[in-house]
Each structure stands twice: as C-alpha cells, then as structure tokens.
Design goal:
This protein is of the alpha+beta class and 153 residues long. It has helices at residues 103-110, 118-138, 142-146; strands at residues 9-15, 21-24, 30-36, 48-53, 58-59, 65-71, 75-86, 92-102. The chain starts with 8 loop residues before the first strand and ends in a 7-residue tail after the last helix.
C-alpha cells in the first residue's frame, strides 16, 4: 500500500500576455515571470509579479490563455518595483518590495478581472458612440467630396 495522499491544488487561469518573460536562472532552471495586473484601473503603480518554473505554465486548449496549478495550502513570493528616489544624475532608483501571499489569495489577484462590473464598460461605449456618429455624419466622406456631380440625362 502506498502512503501517497492527493494534495489539494488550485488552478489559476490567465492570459498569455501576463506570462511573457521567460529566462534561465543561475542554476540553469527555465523560469517564467508572471505579471499580476492591478485590481484598480486607477492604480498606476507597476504591476506585481511572481516567478514559477516554465513547466508549471500550460497553454489552454484554445491557445489564447494559459493556466497553472499550485498547492492550495502553499504560499508564493510576490514582488513589485518601488521608486525609492533619484541619484545625482537624476536617474530613478528602484527597489523590489516583496511579500509572501497565500496561493488562494494569489488566484483571486490573478482572476480579479472576472469580478469587474461590465456594465460600466458598456455604458462608456454607449456614451462615446453618438459623438463619433455625429462627427461622421456631419462631414462628407473624402470620396464623395472629390467626385464631380453628374448631370441628369
């Protein structure tokens, strides 16, 4: 009999663009840096990120997204670049702010886009449509303006 017990895992799904930086560690391991978008669209700070092995990130069956599994009871180190000042030459000095985040919270951070209110996006589009249509109908198209009028036969 084996003493193997299945550990509980969580699956995190996200877009391919968030896992775009592949690199090799000093020890020779292939790693991927995964970016975490800010939950608040008004938050203009740099995005947080974490690093996992390249073999942990898998393409989904449609090819537009990726997914990964992490232990549900584990923690992941998350870092964010923070501007600490400027040197004598006026060049910005950045340091990394790191913290440990439970994987369940990491999943919520990565999938925060699912909780956004979609009505606000649709109402923004509706408010922009009439203005664009009004300017389009007020001006004749360049093709019509350049064509000479034909006399009726």
């Amino acid at each position: 009999m084996s003493d193997y017990t299945e550990k509980e895992t969580i699956t995190i799904k996200f877009g391919k663009g968030l896992a775009d930086r592949h690199f090799t560690s000093k020890a020779g391991k292939d790693l991927v840096e995964v970016k975490i978008p800010n939950e608040d669209p008004g938050d203009k700070r740099p995005w947080q990120s974490f690093v996992v092995g390249a073999g942990m990130v898998h393409d989904n069956k449609y090819g537009k997204g990726v997914w990964m599994r992490l232990p549900a009871d584990g923690e992941t180190k998350v870092s964010r670049p923070v501007l600490t000042g400027q040197d004598e030459n006026g060049k910005n000095i950045w340091e990394n702010e790191t913290r440990m985040v439970p994987n369940t919270e990491l999943k919520a951070m990565m999938e925060a886009y699912k909780t956004r209110d979609r009505d606000s996006v649709l109402s923004d589009l509706d408010s922009k449509k009439p203005a664009a249509e009004a300017t389009r109908s007020a001006r004749p198209s360049p093709e019509k303006a350049a064509r000479p009028k034909q006399a009726a036969r």
